[in-house]
Structures are given as structure tokens and as C-alpha cells.
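Q: what sequence does this backbone want?
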């Protein structure tokens, strides 16, 4: 079992920045691949980024603006979000799975484990 807790959401004006954190606990093998996705009501989760080992992947919608990183000593994964736009408004979730989820580029919203989500609101 893996537990994930996101923090760092909030309200920001367009052009601003936020950093989301995801504190993980539980079976290390089940959280070798960590990802972030976001969701708005009535839509499927949009995968944003994942990190597994030293490799990362980004969706085109956030490439160059968002950065995913992890601090293994703190069991925490981060999503640094810069140049935020109103269309970035959503509930953001971190997710975890075994390493193959990153290798095979699984849909992040379908990873085995997810946190409770944190709201990000970007105003124009």
C-alpha cells in the first residue's frame, strides 16, 4: 500500500508560480514511478508529468513551464509550476505506480495510487 498527500495548492494570478508537493509513504517498489495529473469537473484526468529514476516526461501543455522533481530522502515529489494560466485551474493529483508505468508511459490518472488532490486556481 502507498499513501500520497499533496500540499501547496492555492490561488494565484496569471503569470505566477506555485510548487506542489506530494509526500509519499508505504511500499517503495510501488512508488518508483511518480506522476502528476489534473482534473476539472466532467473531464478525464490530464497527465502532466512523470518521473521514474532519472527520466522525466511532460505533456506538451506544460512543457517548459512545469518541472517535476523528487527528493528521495524526503520521499517527496514536487511539481514546480511557472507562468501559470487561467486554463491551468484544476484539481491536481499526484499518483504512484511501479517503475514500468513510467517505462511504458501509462496514463497517469490510472496509476495504482493517487492522493486526495489539491486545488489550483489561476485568475486572469
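A:
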Amino acid at each position: 500500500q502507498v499513501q500520497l498527500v499533496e500540499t501547496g495548492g492555492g490561488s494565484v494570478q496569471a503569470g505566477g508560480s506555485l510548487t506542489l508537493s506530494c509526500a509519499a509513504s508505504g511500499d517503495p517498489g510501488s512508488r518508483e514511478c511518480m506522476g502528476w495529473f489534473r482534473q476539472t469537473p466532467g473531464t478525464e484526468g490530464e497527465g502532466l508529468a512523470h518521473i521514474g529514476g532519472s527520466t522525466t516526461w511532460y505533456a506538451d501543455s506544460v512543457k517548459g513551464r512545469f518541472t517535476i522533481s523528487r527528493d528521495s530522502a524526503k520521499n517527496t515529489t514536487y511539481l514546480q509550476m511557472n507562468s501559470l494560466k487561467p486554463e491551468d485551474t484544476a484539481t491536481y493529483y499526484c499518483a504512484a505506480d511501479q517503475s514500468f508505468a513510467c517505462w511504458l508511459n501509462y496514463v497517469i490518472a490510472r496509476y495504482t495510487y493517487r492522493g486526495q488532490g489539491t486545488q489550483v486556481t489561476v485568475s486572469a
